[in-house]
Amino acid sequence: MKLINYLIIQIIPFLPKVFVRLVASPYIAGITDDEMLLNVQKLNNKGYDVAIDILGEHVKTEQEATEITERYANLYDRIASQKLNANLSIKLSHIGQDLGYDFVKSNLMILVNAAKKHNNFLRLDMENSPYTSETINLYKKAFESYSNVGIVLQAYMHRSKDDLDKLANEKFNVRICKGIYIESEDIAFRDYQKIRDNYIVLVQQALIKGAYVGIASHDEYLIDKLYLWIKENQIPTTQYEFQILHGVPMGKKLQQLIKKGNKVRVYVPYGDNWYDYSVRRLKENPKMAGYIIKNIFSKILGR
Question: Is the per-residue pLDDT at 4 higher than 70?
Fold first, then answer.
């Protein structure tokens, strides 16, 4: 299977965009704001909360960063006017993190104030390791102005437990994911089960400390194990939610969680950069390739 995944990754950049779009379409919620918001409404109607992400990262110019910042700020207005159950999740490199600390901080505060205006929430995504410390620092700056902001910790990073210990309290809102970027074994776990084990530790410790936790995983082993622990320890449903990527076929499991009174949030990526996002993520995570190729053949065979 590893060989198959590797071969798929090598050919994906050479496939016609229309073919990649066909494969990626379940996972991308549209190109335009209108297309995405229509999908958000449909998800809300099914009982899901939503986190919105405009695809893109590492912008090269201040103009690009400013335009994306304005687009995100306008989304808060549209979410409010359409009475949608949704918040925003941003990559700091998308609003200018590579262009200087003061510049990205200024753009971040624009979004913090936009969220504050509508009493909505803002999540700062965690990117690869060179950005971790600065992302945490910017999160702290944002939190000083508005407490309804959150961050992401990655279970495969050795430092995440220490970061959690320093950050966690009853006002801390954290999404915990496994982590997708390729990192050195000096700073990140490579063993699959060790990542799982650390994931469980992070979620449990965050909940024990009173934090609000987004349990972001498609791994049913983790979902089931953590849900059992949550019930055994009488963690209130107001202290956590389950999170999943748009298009991942786990509808039955998610609906079961909702029926039991749990909140489930769908992470909704969209925008013009869908192609680069799809190709890059597949390259960064070879294990996804086998999953995607199964869906290709399912579409072709009509199954």
Answer: no
Instruction: Give all domains of the chain, ordered by start, each with its CATH number.
Output: 1-28+286-303 (no CATH), 29-270 (3.20.20.220)
pLDDT 10s digits, 206-227 = 999 999 999 999 999 999 999 9
Q: Which of 8, 103, 10, 115 is nearest to 52 (CA)?
A: 115
Nearest Cα neighbor of 179 from 198, 201, 205 is 198
Q: CA 156, CA 180: separation in Å to the nearest integer?
A: 9
Q: What angle do CA 27, 230, 181 make, to 5 degrees?
A: 40
The enclosing H or E element of 242 equals: strand 240-245
- The residues annotated as belonging to the active site are 125, 175
Adjacent-strand bridge partners of 215: 176, 242
Determine the angle formed by the axes of helices 17-24 and 287-301, rounding to 10 degrees. Answer: 90
Q: What share of the chain is helix, strand, coil (3-state, %, to 5)?
A: 55, 15, 30
Rounded to 5 degrees, φ, ψ at 161 are -65, -40
Q: What integer pLDDT is reported at residue 20 of this predicted model?
A: 66
CA-to-CA distance for 31 and 46, rounded, in angstroms? 22
Strand 173-177 and strand 240-245: pairing?
Answer: unpaired
Measure the CA–CA gap between 182 and 190, rounded to whole angstroms: 9
Q: Where are the alpha helices (H) located in 125-219, listed in sequence order?
A: 132-145, 160-167, 192-208
Q: What's the pTM value of the predicted model, to 2 decimals? A: 0.89
Cβ-based neighbour number of residue 299 at 10 Å: 13
